[in-house]
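Run log, item B.
One chain of 419 residues. Sequence copied directly from the ordering sheet:
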Amino acid sequence: MRVKLKFRLRAAAALLSTLTFAAGIATMLPAGESQRISLALSAPQVFDLADADTGVLDPDELRDTFVELIRKQLTAEPELSPEMISSQQLDSETLVRRARDLGYPLAATVYVMRDANLRLGIGVNIYETETGYVVSGRSAFGASDVALAHALERGLAGLGNELRTYLSTRELERRLNVRRITLLSPVPDVVVTFADGRSVAFDDSGAIVLDDPPYRVGQTITLSAHRPGYYPQTVDHYIDAPETTVSVPRLQRRTRYSLGGAAFPAHGIGLLAVGRWYPRTDTVFAELTGGTFRVSPRTELASQLEEDLDDLQAGEIEAFRLDELGMSVGAYLFATPARPIRPGLQLGAGVMHAQGSGWDATIPYLAPINPFVSFGTQRLRARVVTALRYTFGAEAANRRWLITEGPIPYGRLEVSYTW
């Protein structure tokens, strides 16, 4: 009985013989087939559940019963290159840690078991050393030598292909996984919020490094940049490499006030001061203007004043001073504050005071509809504003439209500082 048991227990050496013999087979393969998967092993663990009287498992007496079977199978599927890294029995945690330190991608724990009915079993668990996860397993059981041999053959079939597929998939995942995202901002005090709700804040360095973020190469991520007193801005960034850099654009300040100066070509030499208050930032405004000009007697306005001033003869008006004060309300149309060119419309009223040699005239007016175009998104901006006016009053230039001055339309060229 003891001799027969030992003969049957020779099958327990089959897996160990298989894995250790594979390295020798690898040297016999063609060069194109020699790139095998390194697999770390230690001595198999033996579990004997039978009574002591029925015999004890003795690894030293086990023989290579299944060497030829293993040789044929590994020759047909030459993917594995198992290597013994310890002649001692190691638990799985110790084996995986040691294999990882030695640079093996995979480690295999082998066990041999005999149950109370003297049935033999051989098992193997394959671990990925980087994570410690079990990625595959094989087992074979048999009530006789022949049954165990066939079970082992079926159990080992396709193991190399399975492991190669797993490692290829893992390698692809590693290449697709994003290792690092570097965020750059031109100014501090900016908070960046990702689509999943995570937020990070910039300091004076202007850079944030995110290691191992939950993104993949080929993915487009969306983030929103915020800063007090500025408009938030959303950025879509396509990740084309495992390490990528995202530049946060310079945010646009919310405009509540504007102060600037304007030229009025129709009036000649002079300057118009322009101040605006935005009760609704960058959208709706109230405007106050005031300025003084030197007007040529050859202008259309001078001709109209000559007609309306009864005490003057035609041609007697010389260059005169024109002061004006106006107010209006307006709004930007169609375009968001982020657009560099924004059209709009404003309307208002005002008064002009003309003063010449021996005469003066006060001319109230309405500015019923005046389109404008704004240029720029930063602190310094420009505008072109039309100045269509309808005059009224009893003294001068009563009930007239001021539309053009020769080839020049009534309007102003403005440059303003905003905050």
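Observations after the first pass:
- Residues 173 and 216 are 8 Å apart (CA to CA).
- Helices lie at 2-9, 14-26, 67-76, 92-102, 145-156, 159-176, 300-308.
Flagged for discussion on Thursday.
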